[in-house]
Amino acid sequence: MKIKATGPLTVAEYMKEVLTNPIKGYYMHHDMLGEHGDFITSPEISQVFGELIGVWCISEWMSGGKSKSLKLVELGPGKGSLMDDILRVFSQFQHLLNSCDISVHLVEVSPKLSEIQATKLTGSIIETKYDDDSSAYKNGVTKCGLPISWYHDVQDVPEGYTFFIAHEFFDALPIHKLQKTSDGWREMLIDIDPEIPHKLRFVLGSSNSILATLIQADEQRDHVELSPNAAVIIQKLASQINTFGGAALIADYGHSGDKTDTFRGFRAHRLHNVLVDPGTADLTADVDFSFLKSMIGNTVASLGPITQQDFLKNMGIDLRMKVFLI
């Protein structure tokens, strides 16, 4: 175990090791989605969710001036169900989109999930290739005829007028847990219990954390969860939208800066102790939307957060469901 070699890990280091280690990482080898996985996401339950996001994309494209090109980027596409539903809507509105050069770009670190996505969206198996002329590791054509590419990092996606979709993506990014003490903010670490060698435990760092600079001056909580990774990504999205135009839609379990300890694990659709059997369960933490908004400042206009229920009602889910019931 890495802790034996290097000492206590931050929660962020622990999450990265447990989820994305090339050999034993949870995301690298597990089929975590669906009935037989560890959790189910909205697109796996109903196609309506993705269809309404497709309608949102077209509405934003039209209100934004009908750009001649559009990059549709999804971060963490799961099994590809959401993008499949979005593209079905795009096909139905082809008469509106004929003048737009559309391409699809997926950011995915899991080899297993990228294979599932490729099969679902293109109808074929796409070989993984690494080319000096491209940062994409897979390239193909969707069933509706649009070029599609896969990347390991959002920083690798070509720039341009873009719609970013991130559904249950930010909640899987590594977090740091900070605890307020009489001496300042200390970071929570994960270490081996000296009394029980095979058991992990949380311990408090011995010195103040530099990450405290990311905490708002008026913070009232005594325990916060911060994700520098999320800050980098949201700033990238905001900067690109500010420069080239576009929009981003982020849907996730989250809060507006009023929750404290949300770090938890899921295995077989049940809560699982994050320190037990690492690599066998998904690890997640609620997204602090107030933190994300503070990281982009006034770079772009940001709306929300609102509940997913309100968003779907605003997009006409009640009318869409009536169609299924008729």
Q: State the share of residues found in helices, binned by percent.
A: 25-40%
- Spell out the helices and strands N to C: HEHHHHEHHEHEEEEEEEHEEEEEEHHH
For the record, what CATH class of the domain at 35-171 and 229-271 and 287-325 applies?
A: Alpha Beta
Q: Report on the biggest sheet.
A: 6 strands, mixed
Strand order of the largest sheet: 4-5-3-2-6-11
Q: Alpha-carbon distance between the termini?
A: 57 Å
The amount of beta strand, in percent, is: 15-25%
Number of helices, where a helix is a run of at least 4 consecutive DSSP H or I residues = 12
- Unreliable stretches: none
What's the total number of strands?
16
What would CATH call the homologous superfamily of the domain at 35-171 and 229-271 and 287-325? Vaccinia Virus protein VP39
What is the overall shape? globular
Q: SS-based structural class?
A: alpha/beta
Q: Can you tell me the CATH topology of the domain at 35-171 and 229-271 and 287-325?
A: Rossmann fold
Please, what is the average pLDDT?
A: 91
Instruction: Just name the CATH architecture of the domain at 35-171 and 229-271 and 287-325.
Output: 3-Layer(aba) Sandwich
Write down the Rg.
Answer: 21 Å
Keywords: Methyltransferase, Mitochondrion, Transferase, Transit peptide
Catalytic activity: L-arginyl-[protein] + 2 S-adenosyl-L-methionine = N(omega),N(omega)'-dimethyl-L-arginyl-[protein] + 2 S-adenosyl-L-homocysteine + 2 H(+)
EC number: 2.1.1.320
Protein name: Protein arginine methyltransferase NDUFAF7
